[in-house]
Amino acid sequence: MLDQRFEAATLHQLRERVLAVAKAAGLQGSRAIDVMLVVHELAANAVRHGPGWGRARIANTATALYCEITDTGPARADGEAEPWPYRPGHGLWLVRQAADQVRVVTGPAGSAVTAVFGLPGGPDIPDAG
Amino acid sequence: MAGVSLLEISVGAGPSGPVLSLSGESDLSTLRVLSDALAAQMTGGEQHLSIDLSGLRFADSATIRILLDAHRRLRASDRTLELVNPHPNVARSLTMLGVDKLLTMRTGPQAGHSGW
Fold this sequence. Notes:
The complex is a heterodimer.
Chain A: E1 2-7, H1 11-24, H2 29-49, E2 53-60, E3 64-71, H3 90-98, E4 101-107, E5 110-118
Antiparallel strand pairs in A: 1-2, 2-3, 3-5, 4-5
Helix pairs in contact in A: 1-2, 2-3
Chain B: E1 7-14, E2 17-26, H1 31-42, E3 48-59, H2 61-76, E4 80-84, H3 88-96, E5 104-106
Parallel strand pairs in B: 2-3, 3-4, 4-5
Antiparallel strand pairs in B: 1-2
């Protein structure tokens, strides 16, 4: 449904597209806004604390929307070297509040965070912790 | 598209102090502009700063953190900050972060610089 690279200056374009995708998947009103906010916060983390850019992909099944934000490298040389995406702060707090489930995978090739949103009519999604 | 900014900020006068009006969207790319505008209000002597959010369609956690920092700095010199008429999207984030418990958020026609 979406596969888009982003950087600081294009975050607003990403938000616009994510909102449209969330609505197209059947999420309504404030729930679609939640998806937009979550993807933004994760993308902003990649920009601010990762390599400065990343990739967002959204796909859905019949019962859930999967939003994956990935980055492919270490923090940029001129920037902060804090590890991402585990940096504590308001952004991640919002993500965990708003998404039904959050999965984090990190490795030598970079990081991937997947936020999952249940679609209307589907079963409740257990929190993976 | 030079000159088109994601975030527009204007300063006006309200009944109890200056009013900073934010419109557009605020995210990582606009933090410096917002910080500078708030910093300019820190040195004024007036008691009360209002931030009119009615035109702000989006604010991320980094933006909210800047607003909270401004609130803390003002409070340290016995001044107050209030957020006025947040857009529903922004109000939702503010509530999720508990900001409504930390500072005054107002809605309605009496809030801000409507001349009342």
